[in-house]
Amino acid sequence: MRIPLDQQSPVPLYRQIERYLRQSILAGKLAAETRLPATRQLAQDLGVSRITVNNAYAELESDGLIYTVEGSGAYVAPANPLPASNREPAIVWPLWQLEAQARAESSPETSSERIPQRPRHPHPIAFTGVGDPRHFPVHDFYKALKTVLHRDGIAALVYGGFDGGYRPLRETITHMLASQGIQAHPDQVLITAGSQQALALVCQVLLKPGDVVLVESPTYNVALDLFRSLALKIIGVPLDENGLQIQGLEMLLQQHHPRLLYTIPNFQNPSGSCLSGIRRRQLIALADRYNVPILEDDFAGDLRYDGRTQPAIKALDPGGRAIYTGTFSKMLMPGLRVGFLVAEGPIFGRLVEAKRVNDLATSNLIQRTLDEYVTIGRYQAHLRRSCRIYRQRRDAMLAAIRRYLPSDVHVNPPKGGLFLWLRLPEKVSSLALLPLAAEEGVEYAPGSRFFPNPVDGEGFLRLNFATQTPEEIEEGIRRLGMALRRLITGSHG
Ligand code: PMP
User: Fold this and answer.
1) Does 221 contact ligand 1 (Cβ within 6 A)?
2) Which residues have CB under 8 Å from 445's CB, separation 6+?
3) 195 alpha carbon to ligand 1 midpoint, in Å?
4) Which fold does the domain 136-376 belong to in CATH?
5) CATH class of the domain at 125-130+381-489
6) Ligand 1 centroid distance, CA of 25 (Å)
7) In this predicted model, what pLDDT tens digit does every residue of 482-491 receive, in sequence order?
8) Using one digit for the tens of pLDDT, what is the confidence trace for 85-117?
Protein backbone atom coordinates (compact mmCIF):
# COMPACT_ATOMS: atom_id res chain seq x y z
CA MET A 1 0.00 0.00 0.00
CA ARG A 2 1.40 3.40 -0.96
CA ILE A 3 0.55 6.11 1.52
CA PRO A 4 1.96 9.59 0.80
CA LEU A 5 3.97 10.68 3.83
CA ASP A 6 5.63 14.01 4.50
CA GLN A 7 8.71 13.48 6.66
CA GLN A 8 9.15 17.26 7.20
CA SER A 9 5.60 17.79 8.41
CA PRO A 10 4.93 18.67 12.07
CA VAL A 11 2.07 16.14 11.92
CA PRO A 12 3.46 12.85 13.32
CA LEU A 13 3.89 10.02 10.80
CA TYR A 14 1.47 7.71 12.61
CA ARG A 15 -1.19 10.47 12.33
CA GLN A 16 -0.57 10.80 8.62
CA ILE A 17 -1.02 7.03 8.13
CA GLU A 18 -4.08 6.95 10.35
CA ARG A 19 -5.59 9.91 8.53
CA TYR A 20 -5.03 8.39 5.10
CA LEU A 21 -6.59 5.07 6.09
CA ARG A 22 -9.46 6.79 7.88
CA GLN A 23 -10.23 8.82 4.78
CA SER A 24 -10.08 5.72 2.57
CA ILE A 25 -12.42 3.81 4.87
CA LEU A 26 -14.94 6.63 5.29
CA ALA A 27 -14.97 7.31 1.55
CA GLY A 28 -15.66 3.62 0.92
CA LYS A 29 -12.38 3.11 -0.97
CA LEU A 30 -11.46 0.42 1.52
CA ALA A 31 -14.55 -1.75 1.75
CA ALA A 32 -15.74 -3.53 4.90
CA GLU A 33 -13.79 -6.72 5.67
CA THR A 34 -10.81 -5.64 3.52
CA ARG A 35 -7.63 -6.97 5.08
CA LEU A 36 -5.11 -4.22 5.80
CA PRO A 37 -1.41 -4.89 5.15
CA ALA A 38 0.46 -6.57 8.00
CA THR A 39 2.11 -3.94 10.19
CA ARG A 40 5.62 -5.28 9.45
CA GLN A 41 4.97 -5.12 5.70
CA LEU A 42 3.44 -1.63 5.76
CA ALA A 43 6.29 -0.34 7.93
CA GLN A 44 8.77 -1.69 5.39
CA ASP A 45 6.88 -0.28 2.40
CA LEU A 46 6.67 3.17 3.95
CA GLY A 47 10.14 3.22 5.50
CA VAL A 48 8.80 3.85 9.01
CA SER A 49 9.09 1.92 12.24
CA ARG A 50 6.61 -0.83 13.06
CA ILE A 51 5.54 1.09 16.19
CA THR A 52 4.42 3.94 13.93
CA VAL A 53 2.10 1.63 11.99
CA ASN A 54 0.91 -0.06 15.20
CA ASN A 55 -0.01 3.35 16.62
CA ALA A 56 -1.95 4.25 13.50
CA TYR A 57 -3.88 0.96 13.57
CA ALA A 58 -4.54 1.33 17.31
CA GLU A 59 -6.17 4.74 16.74
CA LEU A 60 -8.38 3.33 13.98
CA GLU A 61 -9.28 0.35 16.10
CA SER A 62 -10.21 2.44 19.10
CA ASP A 63 -12.59 4.40 16.84
CA GLY A 64 -14.08 1.12 15.61
CA LEU A 65 -13.02 1.68 12.00
CA ILE A 66 -10.95 -1.50 11.91
CA TYR A 67 -10.76 -4.65 14.01
CA THR A 68 -7.95 -7.10 14.50
CA VAL A 69 -8.10 -10.90 14.53
CA GLU A 70 -5.42 -12.55 16.63
CA GLY A 71 -2.86 -14.17 14.34
CA SER A 72 -4.64 -13.05 11.17
CA GLY A 73 -4.35 -9.27 10.89
CA ALA A 74 -6.41 -6.09 10.74
CA TYR A 75 -9.65 -5.72 8.79
CA VAL A 76 -11.91 -2.84 7.89
CA ALA A 77 -14.94 -2.93 10.18
CA PRO A 78 -18.50 -3.12 8.87
CA ALA A 79 -20.04 0.31 8.16
CA ASN A 80 -21.08 2.66 11.00
CA PRO A 81 -19.36 0.80 13.80
CA LEU A 82 -19.75 3.58 16.35
CA PRO A 83 -22.81 5.01 18.04
CA ALA A 84 -23.68 8.22 16.20
CA SER A 85 -22.70 10.45 19.13
CA ASN A 86 -19.11 9.12 19.15
CA ARG A 87 -18.56 8.99 15.45
CA GLU A 88 -15.94 11.21 13.85
CA PRO A 89 -17.48 13.74 11.49
CA ALA A 90 -17.35 12.51 7.90
CA ILE A 91 -15.02 15.39 6.95
CA VAL A 92 -11.39 14.36 7.02
CA TRP A 93 -9.27 17.48 6.96
CA PRO A 94 -6.40 17.72 4.49
CA LEU A 95 -2.90 17.39 5.86
CA TRP A 96 -2.13 21.13 5.64
CA GLN A 97 -4.98 21.81 8.05
CA LEU A 98 -3.56 19.34 10.54
CA GLU A 99 -0.10 20.86 10.06
CA ALA A 100 -1.36 24.33 10.91
CA GLN A 101 -2.95 22.96 14.08
CA ALA A 102 0.16 20.96 15.02
CA ARG A 103 2.34 24.07 14.63
CA ALA A 104 0.05 26.12 16.88
CA GLU A 105 -0.10 23.39 19.51
CA SER A 106 3.66 22.99 19.61
CA SER A 107 4.14 26.71 20.37
CA PRO A 108 4.84 27.01 24.12
CA GLU A 109 2.96 30.30 24.43
CA THR A 110 -0.33 29.11 23.02
CA SER A 111 -0.43 26.14 25.35
CA SER A 112 0.45 28.14 28.46
CA GLU A 113 -3.09 28.82 29.56
CA ARG A 114 -5.11 25.62 29.85
CA ILE A 115 -7.97 26.46 32.13
CA PRO A 116 -10.14 23.66 33.49
CA GLN A 117 -13.80 24.01 32.59
CA ARG A 118 -16.14 24.73 35.49
CA PRO A 119 -19.87 25.37 35.47
CA ARG A 120 -20.55 28.95 34.43
CA HIS A 121 -22.44 31.41 36.58
CA PRO A 122 -25.85 32.37 35.10
CA HIS A 123 -25.09 36.13 35.37
CA PRO A 124 -21.35 36.64 35.14
CA ILE A 125 -19.84 40.11 35.56
CA ALA A 126 -17.02 40.54 33.05
CA PHE A 127 -14.18 42.93 33.82
CA THR A 128 -12.88 42.37 30.31
CA GLY A 129 -13.56 44.05 26.96
CA VAL A 130 -13.11 47.71 26.09
CA GLY A 131 -15.62 50.47 26.94
CA ASP A 132 -19.24 50.15 28.00
CA PRO A 133 -21.41 49.46 24.91
CA ARG A 134 -24.38 50.95 26.80
CA HIS A 135 -22.69 54.34 26.36
CA PHE A 136 -21.82 54.08 22.68
CA PRO A 137 -23.23 57.14 20.88
CA VAL A 138 -25.44 55.05 18.63
CA HIS A 139 -28.02 57.70 17.84
CA ASP A 140 -25.54 60.44 16.97
CA PHE A 141 -23.55 58.05 14.85
CA TYR A 142 -26.67 57.01 13.01
CA LYS A 143 -27.44 60.68 12.28
CA ALA A 144 -23.91 61.19 10.96
CA LEU A 145 -24.26 58.11 8.74
CA LYS A 146 -27.52 59.39 7.28
CA THR A 147 -25.95 62.78 6.61
CA VAL A 148 -23.02 61.18 4.79
CA LEU A 149 -25.17 58.94 2.63
CA HIS A 150 -27.39 61.86 1.72
CA ARG A 151 -24.50 64.24 1.09
CA ASP A 152 -21.91 61.98 -0.58
CA GLY A 153 -24.03 59.24 -2.21
CA ILE A 154 -21.97 56.89 -4.39
CA ALA A 155 -18.68 58.58 -3.43
CA ALA A 156 -19.08 57.09 0.05
CA LEU A 157 -19.56 53.60 -1.33
CA VAL A 158 -16.53 53.14 -3.56
CA TYR A 159 -13.13 52.09 -2.18
CA GLY A 160 -11.50 55.55 -1.96
CA GLY A 161 -8.36 56.72 -0.21
CA PHE A 162 -5.68 54.30 -1.43
CA ASP A 163 -3.02 56.86 -0.57
CA GLY A 164 -3.66 56.84 3.17
CA GLY A 165 -7.39 57.10 3.75
CA TYR A 166 -10.20 59.63 3.49
CA ARG A 167 -8.44 62.96 3.28
CA PRO A 168 -10.80 65.06 5.46
CA LEU A 169 -10.56 62.47 8.25
CA ARG A 170 -6.76 62.57 8.02
CA GLU A 171 -6.96 66.36 8.35
CA THR A 172 -9.29 66.07 11.33
CA ILE A 173 -6.87 63.67 12.98
CA THR A 174 -4.00 66.14 12.57
CA HIS A 175 -6.10 68.73 14.44
CA MET A 176 -6.78 66.25 17.22
CA LEU A 177 -3.08 65.42 17.39
CA ALA A 178 -2.08 69.07 17.52
CA SER A 179 -3.78 69.26 20.90
CA GLN A 180 -1.26 66.66 22.09
CA GLY A 181 1.67 68.59 20.66
CA ILE A 182 2.08 66.35 17.62
CA GLN A 183 2.60 68.50 14.54
CA ALA A 184 1.58 66.06 11.83
CA HIS A 185 0.68 66.77 8.22
CA PRO A 186 -2.30 64.86 6.75
CA ASP A 187 0.15 63.30 4.29
CA GLN A 188 1.80 61.56 7.25
CA VAL A 189 -1.42 60.03 8.56
CA LEU A 190 -2.49 56.57 7.42
CA ILE A 191 -5.96 55.33 8.36
CA THR A 192 -5.89 51.70 9.48
CA ALA A 193 -8.38 49.03 10.53
CA GLY A 194 -7.93 49.76 14.22
CA SER A 195 -4.53 50.32 15.77
CA GLN A 196 -4.06 46.55 15.74
CA GLN A 197 -3.58 46.80 12.00
CA ALA A 198 -1.12 49.65 12.48
CA LEU A 199 0.99 47.37 14.69
CA ALA A 200 0.80 44.58 12.11
CA LEU A 201 1.74 46.88 9.22
CA VAL A 202 4.76 48.26 11.06
CA CYS A 203 5.94 44.71 11.77
CA GLN A 204 5.32 43.66 8.20
CA VAL A 205 7.38 46.52 6.81
CA LEU A 206 10.23 46.64 9.34
CA LEU A 207 10.75 43.14 10.67
CA LYS A 208 11.52 39.60 9.62
CA PRO A 209 11.33 36.33 11.57
CA GLY A 210 13.99 36.13 14.27
CA ASP A 211 14.32 39.91 14.69
CA VAL A 212 14.28 41.21 18.24
CA VAL A 213 11.48 43.45 19.49
CA LEU A 214 11.72 45.17 22.87
CA VAL A 215 8.47 45.49 24.79
CA GLU A 216 7.39 46.61 28.22
CA SER A 217 6.96 43.63 30.48
CA PRO A 218 4.01 43.31 30.95
CA THR A 219 2.45 44.61 27.74
CA TYR A 220 -0.65 44.40 25.52
CA ASN A 221 -1.37 40.71 25.00
CA VAL A 222 -2.47 40.83 21.36
CA ALA A 223 0.71 42.72 20.45
CA LEU A 224 2.59 39.81 22.02
CA ASP A 225 0.45 37.38 20.02
CA LEU A 226 1.23 39.34 16.86
CA PHE A 227 4.97 39.31 17.53
CA ARG A 228 4.86 35.59 18.26
CA SER A 229 2.89 34.89 15.10
CA LEU A 230 5.69 36.57 13.14
CA ALA A 231 8.36 34.50 14.93
CA LEU A 232 9.98 37.62 16.41
CA LYS A 233 12.19 37.34 19.46
CA ILE A 234 10.49 39.25 22.25
CA ILE A 235 12.59 40.80 25.00
CA GLY A 236 10.79 42.39 27.96
CA VAL A 237 11.89 45.62 29.61
CA PRO A 238 10.76 45.87 33.25
CA LEU A 239 8.12 48.44 34.09
CA ASP A 240 7.37 50.51 37.19
CA GLU A 241 4.78 53.18 38.02
CA ASN A 242 6.68 55.65 35.80
CA GLY A 243 6.59 53.38 32.78
CA LEU A 244 9.35 51.32 31.24
CA GLN A 245 12.59 51.47 33.18
CA ILE A 246 15.24 53.26 31.21
CA GLN A 247 17.97 51.92 33.48
CA GLY A 248 18.97 48.65 31.93
CA LEU A 249 17.35 49.52 28.59
CA GLU A 250 20.67 50.65 27.19
CA MET A 251 22.21 47.31 28.10
CA LEU A 252 19.38 45.47 26.35
CA LEU A 253 19.85 47.68 23.29
CA GLN A 254 23.55 46.81 23.18
CA GLN A 255 23.01 43.15 23.91
CA HIS A 256 20.09 42.34 21.60
CA HIS A 257 20.25 44.87 18.72
CA PRO A 258 16.45 45.12 18.57
CA ARG A 259 14.77 46.17 15.34
CA LEU A 260 11.77 47.71 17.12
CA LEU A 261 10.82 49.11 20.50
CA TYR A 262 7.10 48.87 21.21
CA THR A 263 5.77 51.07 24.00
CA ILE A 264 2.40 52.16 25.40
CA PRO A 265 3.34 55.35 27.23
CA ASN A 266 -0.12 56.40 28.48
CA PHE A 267 -2.26 54.32 30.89
CA GLN A 268 -0.35 51.31 29.77
CA ASN A 269 -2.22 48.11 28.98
CA PRO A 270 -2.27 46.25 31.36
CA SER A 271 -0.39 48.07 34.15
CA GLY A 272 -2.09 51.50 33.86
CA SER A 273 1.27 53.24 34.34
CA CYS A 274 2.34 56.39 32.47
CA LEU A 275 5.82 56.98 31.15
CA SER A 276 7.31 60.02 32.89
CA GLY A 277 8.30 63.08 30.86
CA ILE A 278 12.00 62.56 31.59
CA ARG A 279 11.88 58.96 30.47
CA ARG A 280 10.13 59.92 27.24
CA ARG A 281 13.04 62.18 26.40
CA GLN A 282 15.58 59.56 27.42
CA LEU A 283 13.81 56.99 25.29
CA ILE A 284 13.94 59.13 22.17
CA ALA A 285 17.66 59.81 22.78
CA LEU A 286 18.45 56.12 23.23
CA ALA A 287 16.40 55.04 20.22
CA ASP A 288 18.27 57.63 18.19
CA ARG A 289 21.67 56.49 19.44
CA TYR A 290 20.96 52.83 18.75
CA ASN A 291 19.02 53.38 15.54
CA VAL A 292 15.87 51.63 16.78
CA PRO A 293 12.41 52.72 15.62
CA ILE A 294 9.93 53.41 18.40
CA LEU A 295 6.35 52.24 17.91
CA GLU A 296 4.27 54.41 20.24
CA ASP A 297 0.83 52.91 20.90
CA ASP A 298 -1.42 55.62 22.33
CA PHE A 299 -4.54 53.47 22.58
CA ALA A 300 -6.32 55.45 25.32
CA GLY A 301 -4.31 58.66 25.69
CA ASP A 302 -7.41 60.88 25.82
CA LEU A 303 -9.04 58.94 28.66
CA ARG A 304 -7.34 60.94 31.41
CA TYR A 305 -9.06 61.42 34.77
CA ASP A 306 -6.36 63.11 36.87
CA GLY A 307 -2.95 64.64 36.57
CA ARG A 308 -1.07 66.36 33.77
CA THR A 309 -0.70 65.19 30.18
CA GLN A 310 2.82 64.30 29.11
CA PRO A 311 3.94 65.11 25.58
CA ALA A 312 3.64 62.18 23.21
CA ILE A 313 6.97 60.58 22.36
CA LYS A 314 6.13 61.49 18.79
CA ALA A 315 5.92 65.13 19.83
CA LEU A 316 9.54 64.93 21.07
CA ASP A 317 10.72 63.20 17.93
CA PRO A 318 12.92 65.46 15.81
CA GLY A 319 11.52 63.57 12.80
CA GLY A 320 11.20 59.98 11.63
CA ARG A 321 12.34 58.22 14.86
CA ALA A 322 8.95 57.26 16.20
CA ILE A 323 5.82 55.85 14.58
CA TYR A 324 2.69 56.84 16.47
CA THR A 325 -0.57 54.92 16.47
CA GLY A 326 -3.95 55.89 17.87
CA THR A 327 -7.46 54.50 17.65
CA PHE A 328 -11.13 55.42 17.96
CA SER A 329 -11.87 52.06 19.60
CA LYS A 330 -11.48 53.11 23.22
CA MET A 331 -12.62 56.72 22.95
CA LEU A 332 -15.61 55.86 20.75
CA MET A 333 -16.46 52.31 19.60
CA PRO A 334 -14.23 49.34 18.80
CA GLY A 335 -16.62 48.06 16.12
CA LEU A 336 -15.78 51.00 13.87
CA ARG A 337 -12.39 49.42 13.27
CA VAL A 338 -10.77 52.76 12.64
CA GLY A 339 -7.33 53.62 13.88
CA PHE A 340 -4.43 55.52 12.37
CA LEU A 341 -0.70 55.81 12.36
CA VAL A 342 1.57 58.79 11.94
CA ALA A 343 4.95 58.33 10.32
CA GLU A 344 7.32 60.43 8.28
CA GLY A 345 10.08 59.64 5.85
CA PRO A 346 10.45 56.82 3.34
CA ILE A 347 8.69 54.39 5.68
CA PHE A 348 5.33 56.10 5.17
CA GLY A 349 4.99 55.00 1.53
CA ARG A 350 5.94 51.45 2.49
CA LEU A 351 3.24 51.43 5.16
CA VAL A 352 0.65 52.74 2.69
CA GLU A 353 1.60 49.98 0.27
CA ALA A 354 1.45 47.34 3.03
CA LYS A 355 -2.04 48.58 3.94
CA ARG A 356 -3.14 48.33 0.29
CA VAL A 357 -1.98 44.74 -0.12
CA ASN A 358 -3.54 43.74 3.21
CA ASP A 359 -7.09 45.02 2.81
CA LEU A 360 -7.11 47.61 0.01
CA ALA A 361 -8.62 50.30 2.25
CA THR A 362 -10.51 50.89 5.47
CA SER A 363 -14.26 51.34 4.93
CA ASN A 364 -14.81 54.59 3.10
CA LEU A 365 -18.36 54.91 4.45
CA ILE A 366 -17.25 54.50 8.05
CA GLN A 367 -14.33 56.93 7.63
CA ARG A 368 -16.64 59.59 6.23
CA THR A 369 -19.22 59.01 8.97
CA LEU A 370 -16.57 59.18 11.65
CA ASP A 371 -15.23 62.42 10.22
CA GLU A 372 -18.72 63.90 10.13
CA TYR A 373 -19.28 62.82 13.74
CA VAL A 374 -15.93 64.13 15.01
CA THR A 375 -15.96 67.50 13.26
CA ILE A 376 -19.34 68.58 14.51
CA GLY A 377 -18.04 68.46 18.05
CA ARG A 378 -19.99 65.47 19.26
CA TYR A 379 -16.80 63.52 19.71
CA GLN A 380 -15.40 65.98 22.25
CA ALA A 381 -18.68 65.94 24.18
CA HIS A 382 -18.72 62.13 24.14
CA LEU A 383 -15.13 62.01 25.34
CA ARG A 384 -15.82 64.36 28.25
CA ARG A 385 -18.81 62.24 29.23
CA SER A 386 -16.81 58.99 28.97
CA CYS A 387 -14.06 60.45 31.14
CA ARG A 388 -16.59 61.48 33.79
CA ILE A 389 -18.24 58.05 33.82
CA TYR A 390 -15.01 56.06 33.73
CA ARG A 391 -13.43 58.13 36.52
CA GLN A 392 -16.38 57.24 38.78
CA ARG A 393 -16.03 53.60 37.85
CA ARG A 394 -12.32 53.56 38.52
CA ASP A 395 -12.95 55.04 41.94
CA ALA A 396 -15.79 52.59 42.59
CA MET A 397 -13.51 49.69 41.75
CA LEU A 398 -10.68 50.97 43.93
CA ALA A 399 -13.11 51.38 46.83
CA ALA A 400 -14.57 47.89 46.30
CA ILE A 401 -11.07 46.41 46.22
CA ARG A 402 -10.30 48.02 49.57
CA ARG A 403 -13.57 46.65 50.93
CA TYR A 404 -13.62 43.11 49.59
CA LEU A 405 -10.09 42.00 48.75
CA PRO A 406 -7.38 41.04 51.24
CA SER A 407 -5.11 43.93 52.19
CA ASP A 408 -2.09 42.23 50.60
CA VAL A 409 -3.64 42.57 47.14
CA HIS A 410 -1.71 45.47 45.64
CA VAL A 411 -2.96 47.98 43.06
CA ASN A 412 -1.52 51.27 41.76
CA PRO A 413 -4.41 53.67 41.06
CA PRO A 414 -4.08 54.67 37.38
CA LYS A 415 -4.66 58.28 36.29
CA GLY A 416 -6.69 57.24 33.27
CA GLY A 417 -7.33 54.51 30.75
CA LEU A 418 -9.38 51.40 31.36
CA PHE A 419 -7.47 49.02 33.58
CA LEU A 420 -6.53 48.18 37.14
CA TRP A 421 -3.58 45.85 37.47
CA LEU A 422 -3.67 43.74 40.61
CA ARG A 423 -0.77 41.96 42.24
CA LEU A 424 -2.14 39.02 44.21
CA PRO A 425 -0.85 37.87 47.59
CA GLU A 426 2.32 35.80 47.41
CA LYS A 427 1.96 32.30 45.89
CA VAL A 428 -1.62 33.00 44.69
CA SER A 429 -1.96 32.23 40.99
CA SER A 430 -4.41 34.18 38.85
CA LEU A 431 -4.76 31.11 36.61
CA ALA A 432 -5.75 28.94 39.56
CA LEU A 433 -8.18 31.64 40.62
CA LEU A 434 -9.83 31.87 37.20
CA PRO A 435 -12.16 28.81 37.42
CA LEU A 436 -13.22 29.72 40.98
CA ALA A 437 -13.94 33.28 39.86
CA ALA A 438 -15.99 31.92 36.95
CA GLU A 439 -17.97 29.84 39.42
CA GLU A 440 -18.61 32.89 41.59
CA GLY A 441 -19.58 34.83 38.45
CA VAL A 442 -16.73 37.21 37.72
CA GLU A 443 -14.30 37.34 34.79
CA TYR A 444 -10.91 39.01 34.40
CA ALA A 445 -7.76 38.69 32.31
CA PRO A 446 -5.06 36.59 34.02
CA GLY A 447 -1.62 38.22 34.16
CA SER A 448 0.23 35.51 32.25
CA ARG A 449 -1.26 36.75 28.97
CA PHE A 450 0.67 39.99 29.22
CA PHE A 451 4.22 38.82 29.74
CA PRO A 452 6.74 37.74 27.13
CA ASN A 453 7.36 34.85 29.49
CA PRO A 454 3.85 33.87 30.67
CA VAL A 455 4.96 32.39 34.02
CA ASP A 456 6.11 35.87 35.13
CA GLY A 457 2.46 36.96 35.21
CA GLU A 458 0.90 34.28 37.38
CA GLY A 459 0.68 36.56 40.39
CA PHE A 460 -1.19 39.33 38.52
CA LEU A 461 -4.56 39.97 37.00
CA ARG A 462 -6.11 42.78 34.97
CA LEU A 463 -9.54 44.26 35.57
CA ASN A 464 -11.31 46.59 33.16
CA PHE A 465 -13.22 49.11 35.27
CA ALA A 466 -14.94 50.86 32.32
CA THR A 467 -17.34 48.17 31.18
CA GLN A 468 -19.58 47.87 34.26
CA THR A 469 -21.69 50.24 36.36
CA PRO A 470 -20.54 51.09 39.91
CA GLU A 471 -23.14 48.64 41.29
CA GLU A 472 -21.94 45.84 39.03
CA ILE A 473 -18.36 46.68 39.96
CA GLU A 474 -19.15 46.41 43.65
CA GLU A 475 -20.83 43.04 43.15
CA GLY A 476 -18.11 41.74 40.83
CA ILE A 477 -15.30 42.62 43.22
CA ARG A 478 -17.25 41.07 46.09
CA ARG A 479 -17.42 37.86 44.04
CA LEU A 480 -13.71 38.10 43.27
CA GLY A 481 -13.06 38.42 47.00
CA MET A 482 -15.07 35.23 47.64
CA ALA A 483 -13.15 33.33 44.97
CA LEU A 484 -9.84 34.56 46.39
CA ARG A 485 -10.74 33.53 49.90
CA ARG A 486 -11.78 30.09 48.66
CA LEU A 487 -8.48 29.70 46.86
CA ILE A 488 -6.40 30.90 49.81
CA THR A 489 -8.19 28.74 52.37
CA GLY A 490 -8.29 25.76 49.99
CA SER A 491 -12.09 25.42 50.33
CA HIS A 492 -12.79 24.41 46.74
CA GLY A 493 -13.36 21.12 45.01
N1 PMP B 1 -3.19 48.68 21.55
C2 PMP B 1 -3.63 48.40 22.78
C3 PMP B 1 -2.75 48.75 23.93
C4 PMP B 1 -4.86 47.82 22.99
O5 PMP B 1 -5.29 47.56 24.22
C6 PMP B 1 -5.67 47.48 21.85
C7 PMP B 1 -7.01 46.79 21.98
N8 PMP B 1 -7.46 46.50 23.20
C9 PMP B 1 -5.16 47.79 20.59
C10 PMP B 1 -3.92 48.38 20.47
C11 PMP B 1 -5.92 47.46 19.34
O12 PMP B 1 -7.16 48.09 19.31
P13 PMP B 1 -7.92 48.52 18.00
O14 PMP B 1 -7.40 47.67 16.88
O15 PMP B 1 -9.34 48.29 18.29
O16 PMP B 1 -7.58 49.96 17.77
Assistant:
1) no
2) 127, 128, 221, 270, 461, 462, 463, 464
3) 6
4) Aspartate Aminotransferase; domain 2 (3.40.640)
5) alpha beta
6) 47
7) 999 999 998 7
8) 455 555 677 888 878 877 777 665 544 455 555
